Amino acid sequence: MLTLAGVALAAIGTETLARWSETGTTQWEQAILDRLPIAQTARNAETATPLTALTGATTWLNGPPLSATSLSGKIVLVDFWTYSCINCLRAIPHVRAWDAAYRDKELVVIGVHTPEFAFERLTDNVIRAVGDLRIGHPVAINNDHAIWSGFANRYWPALYLIDGSGRVRYQHFGEGATERTEQAIRDLLQEAGTPALAPMEPRVAATGAEAATDFANIKSPETYLGYARAAGFASPEGLQKNRRETYDAPPTLVLNQWALRGEWTIAEEYTRLETPSGGIVMRFHARDLHLVLGPGLTGAAIRFRVLLDGAPPGPTAGQDIDAQGYGMVREHRLYPLIRQTGEIRDRDVSIEFLDPGIQAFAFTFG
pTM value? Predict the structure, then answer.
């Protein structure tokens, strides 16, 4: 079992491994054991026919519903993703490129959007994200995780390559291995009778949040701000569940600690600002810092400002803020706030919200 757990960890990418190793013995480590059936699925790939689970889609985007019957004889690439997941965002440019390169060679790419947060269950939010991300392949809305369960999947992102008989012939969990995945696609297409393909060439020059992780410099794990998965909370008042509380931040933070300033309610999935002014501070070590945010129940836009080590971010500003650190939250999504250049070291970030109601879900890094 320990060997299988190690295989599972190796498959899902450095960022997720970092998250688990930093949080100690939590539900995330238990999730390693929960994910072991994936290894069994891999051993049984020659007989599995998980495409029957596509009937569990509640809605289809970019085309009519697909099924195991309509896909019989096709080579199919299934991508499990959710739109606020940074690992998924970094995989999507490659999935788009494979769809563009091999659609006319009879590859069918299917995105299975499986939500992590409640706001990702709203179809209008997914439709907006599909447009923003320039996704042209079919997307199955999988709000009840029926397709996820049918594949015995446990990862975001996860890729499954399926042959014309419905058998899983290749799978990859997490970021990376793009050349190996594309070679598997090409091998299966040629096995199915596709004429000789042109030489494989680099297809993606991703920018913004889609850019590849700087694995050499990432020392901060994904950090959730709702009480269900919170770790590293450092406000001296302690984490108070589902209760308005006035929080202070300590004078200093150690790496991967975070704290609140102002009056907040920490709910299961997120923390919500109750007054017109309040902040979140964190000490991190990574090239990129992102924060999953939403405008709250009223939907009104919320102003905020980001400071890095107490100063405007200038050239390190991410795509959702200006050089002075100012930005606006208008919808629920991931907001890229910091992209450093040059030496990467421990830094303190402060996000001050100028309006009430913000919902803050999770920090992610790259």
Answer: 0.84
